[in-house]
């Protein structure tokens, strides 16, 4: 009878804790801004701001203000974050498990940062960290976690699982040199891919979604699945939005699958075309309610921001021309009869330059198909030599042109609001896709892969 009563009490306590809001108190001793999740908070000196999280029993989020720290929070937690005048960020130690847990996470993150320094700028490390390597970092974190859990055994319930998952995938990411950028088209040995694929069975436990390294590995593996699609779950390449939701079906039902479907759509939200809005909205309806609500709010804001901006070009066939590195004039119409991938870019544009290696790899994979890869630089005449130098040094393939007409006319013609700007023109000369996500997303490859060989 006592055991039954004990179980009932524990169950009631669990139900009481589940769904209780998480509260984060921001205390600004200086003027500052804080990035937390998708939100930005601007604070004046002396201001206090509360952030409340509701609806879930666990949260894993990044907080940034001069420095970044990962926070793991459970229902009912309360944490005070102090932004000091000396630009330091403090997680106030109030004796709670929440404060102890998140300060432990900061200690682990600091050790990971020191490993980066050990590889890049070892002279900046204190003497005790000389020779720091991945093995030493992983061993230290395991020892620290065991010590922490002895002091706070209640955190074995969820936090230990999240951290064991974090250690596993942190090591895997570091061993394979995977950083924060996209890994689309990156090739990995079969045995390494098999290790990456463990993200699928591990997804059966919803708690793994709160591990930053696990989620990074999920993103890497989804990049691979988007290109290779071994289970043939995706439809035709032009079903962009639908395919992004279908990719999540590689994973078992639960928190990980829900987050993948949401993240995939959120990543391409900016490029949603007006004529494809209906298809996108249908995909949003298939998301978990909490994610669908977030995307609908973002769409409303995006629509308001674009209210007075033209998004669909009236001229279906862009009459464009440019000069080659040798000064020869080339008209886009000369490629009629072939599919054209048009990339509008510039040497001074960081995101444009980041797309160059992905574009080169895609060209290699699609070699022999009836496609012309046309890169149109909007560099000014004064920067012509800089453009020529980059084209030659990076051995950029395809058709390399520099716009000789007015940039304002180009922007008007293709409704360009920023670069890089990607568009696809069919053999009849029709602009069938305009304002696509970068090549690094893999979506353009999925469309062009269906173009037949010449």
From TrEMBL:
GO terms (molecular function) for this protein are:
antioxidant activity; isomerase activity; oxidoreductase activity
**Keywords, comma-separated and alphabetical:** Cytochrome c-type biogenesis, Disulfide bond, Isomerase, Redox-active center, Signal
Q: Which GO terms describe its biological process?
A: cytochrome complex assembly
Q: Where are the transmembrane segments?
A: none
Task: Tell me, in one coarse class, where this protein mainly resides.
Answer: other
Signal peptide span per the entry?
1-19
User: Per the database record, which ranges form the Thioredoxin domain?
Assistant: 311-453
Which PANTHER family does the UniProt record give?
A: THIOL:DISULFIDE INTERCHANGE PROTEIN DSBE
Protein name (database record): Thiol-disulfide isomerase/thioredoxin
Organism, as annotated: Butyricimonas paravirosa
């Amino acid at each position: 009878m006592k055991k039954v009563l004990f179980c009932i009490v524990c169950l009631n306590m669990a139900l009481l804790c589940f769904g209780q809001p998480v509260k984060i108190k921001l205390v600004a001793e200086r003027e500052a801004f804080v990035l937390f999740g998708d939100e930005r908070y601007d604070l004046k000196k002396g201001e206090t701001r509360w952030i409340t999280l509701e609806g879930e029993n666990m949260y894993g989020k990044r907080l940034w203000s001069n420095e970044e720290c990962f926070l793991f929070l459970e229902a009912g937690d309360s944490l005070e974050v102090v932004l000091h005048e000396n630009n330091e960020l403090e997680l106030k130690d109030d004796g709670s498990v929440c404060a102890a847990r998140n300060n432990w996470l900061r200690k682990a993150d600091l050790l990971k940062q020191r490993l980066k320094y050990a590889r890049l700028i070892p002279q900046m490390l204190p003497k005790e960290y000389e020779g720091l390597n991945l093995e030493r970092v992983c061993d230290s974190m395991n020892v620290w976690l065991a010590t922490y859990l002895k002091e706070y055994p209640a955190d074995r319930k969820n936090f230990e699982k999240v951290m064991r998952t974090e250690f596993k995938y942190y090591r895997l990411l570091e061993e394979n040199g995977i950083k924060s950028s996209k890994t689309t088209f990156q090739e990995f040995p079969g045995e390494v891919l098999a290790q990456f694929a463990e993200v699928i069975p591990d997804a059966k436990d919803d708690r793994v979604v709160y591990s930053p390294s696990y989620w990074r590995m999920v993103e890497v593996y989804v990049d691979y699945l988007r290109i290779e699609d071994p289970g043939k779950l995706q439809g035709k390449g032009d079903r962009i939005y639908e395919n992004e939701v279908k990719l999540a079906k590689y994973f078992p039902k639960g928190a990980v699958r829900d987050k993948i479907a949401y993240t995939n759509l959120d990543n391409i939200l900016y490029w949603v075309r007006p004529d494809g809005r209906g298809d996108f909205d249908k995909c949003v309806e298939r998301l978990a309610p909490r994610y669908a609500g977030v995307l609908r709010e973002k769409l409303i804001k995006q629509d308001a921001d674009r209210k007075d901006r033209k998004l669909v070009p009236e001229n279906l066939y862009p009459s464009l021309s440019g000069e080659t590195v040798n000064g020869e004039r080339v008209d886009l119409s000369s490629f009629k009869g072939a599919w054209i991938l048009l990339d509008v870019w510039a040497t001074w544009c960081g995101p444009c330059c980041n797309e160059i290696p992905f574009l080169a790899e895609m060209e290699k994979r699609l070699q022999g198909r009836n496609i012309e890869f046309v890169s149109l630089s909007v560099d000014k005449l004064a920067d012509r030599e800089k453009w020529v130098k980059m084209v030659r040094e990076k051995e950029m393939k395809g058709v390399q042109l520099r716009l000789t007409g007015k940039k304002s006319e180009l922007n008007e013609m293709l409704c360009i609001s920023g670069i890089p700007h990607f568009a696809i023109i069919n053999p009849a000369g029709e602009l069938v896709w305009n304002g696509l996500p970068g090549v690094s997303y893999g979506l353009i490859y999925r469309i062009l892969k269906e173009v037949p060989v010449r």
